[in-house]
Amino acid sequence: ADSVEEKKFCLTEVLDVFKSCLTENKEVLVDQYVAGWRGLVKFMNSLGSIFSFISKDAVSKIQIMINHRNGNNGAEYVTIQSMVKYELDNKLVDLTKSGNFPESGCRTILRLHRALRWLELFLERLRTSTEDGKTSVMCADAYNESLAHHHSWLIRAAAGMAFCTLPGRSTFFEVMNVGPPEQVVAMLGDALPLISEVYQITEDLYTEYNLLNLP
Ligand code: 1PX
Questions:
Q1: pLDDT one-digit tens code per residue, 32-79
Q2: I need a surface site. Which of 149, 154, 191, 195 has the fewest CB within 10 A?
C-alpha cells in the first residue's frame, strides 16, 4: 500500500550507474553516463534550491543527450566513441567558434566531462577527510582546481555562494544515505577508481581528436 512512496535516495546506486558506463572494450555508454548525471542532479536538488541554477544547466545538457539518443541517428550515439566519430565525420561540431551546432554531442559531453573531474576531486576529498572536515571547502577546492577554469567570474561567484550553504560532513554523509561514515568512505573508495577510469578514457579520446577546447 505504501508503494507510492518514492524509494529513499541512496548515492551508492548513483555511483554504481557510473560503473556500468564502461563496456568490455572500454567504451563509454552514453545512456548510463547520462543516467549517472541524472542521479547526481537529483541528489544535488535535495541539498536546496540555491543549487537550482546548476541543476538547470545540467538537466538541459542531459536532455540534449537524451534527444540525440532518441533521434533518427540515435544508434550513432550509443557510446561517446561512436558519437565523436559520427559527429566529426559528418561535420556536426563547431570546432573553433560556436554558431551552427550549439547542441552537438561532443561539446555537450565535454561540459559534463569537465564536471566529472570536479566530482572525482570532490569525492576524493570527502573520502580522505577527517570528522571536522568542511564539505564547503572540499567542494570549493575541487571546483577551483577543475571546472572553475572554464567558468566566467559570475558563475564562479554564484557557485562559491552555493558551496557555502553545504551542510557539514556528518549531515552531508547522512544525506548520501549510504550508512555510517566508515561505510561511506568504503563506498567512495570502491566507486572512485571507476569514475577516474571513465574520466581518463574520455579525456584521452578528446585529446586524440583535439576536442578539449570546443566552444
Ligand atoms: C557526493 C557528492 C555528489 C554531488 C553531486 C553533485 C552533482 C552536480 C552536478 C553538476 C553538474 C554541473 C554541470 C556544469 C556544466 C557546465 O560547466 N556548464 C557551463 C558551461 O556550459 P555552456 O553550455 O554555457 O558552455 C554553464 O555555464 C554552467 C552553469 C551553471 C554553473 C555550474 C557550476 C558547477 C558547480 C559544480 C558543483 C556542484 C556542487 C554540488 C554540491 C554537492
A1: 999 999 999 999 999 999 999 999 999 999 999 999 999 999 999 999
A2: 154
Q: Answer yes or no: is the C-beta of 147 below 6 A from any ligand 1 atom.
A: yes
Give yes or no for a contact between 14 and 40, defined as CB atoms under 8 angstroms apart: yes
The contacts of residue 112 (CB under 8 Å, 6+ apart) are 33, 37, 58, 61
**8-208, CATH topology level:** Glycolipid transfer protein, GLTP (1.10.3520)
Can you say whether the dihedral through the CA atoms of 181, 196, 97, 60 is positive or negative?
negative
How far is the CA of 39 from the CAs of 10, 14, 45, 130, 158, in angstroms? 9, 5, 10, 26, 23
Following CA atoms 198, 38, 139, 116 in sequence, which dihedral angle do they give, to the nearest 10 degrees? Answer: 20
State which of 42, 43, 44 you would mutate to test the pocket of ligand 1, scoring each by most atoms of that ligand within 8 A of its C-beta.
44
Yes or no: say if 129 and 141 are a contact pair by the CB < 8 Å rule: no
Q: In this structure, which residue's CA is closest to atom 34 in ligand 1?
A: 54
What are the C-alpha distances in Å from 7 to residues 2, 3, 42, 75? 10, 9, 13, 32
With the C-alpha atoms ordered 163, 169, 174, 178, is the resulting torsion angle positive or negative? positive
What three-state secondary structure class fits 80? helix
What DSSP state is assigned to residue 214?
-
What stretches of 101-141 adopt beta strand conformation (E)?
Answer: none
* Cβ partners under 8 Å of residue 147, min gap 6: 114, 115, 117, 118
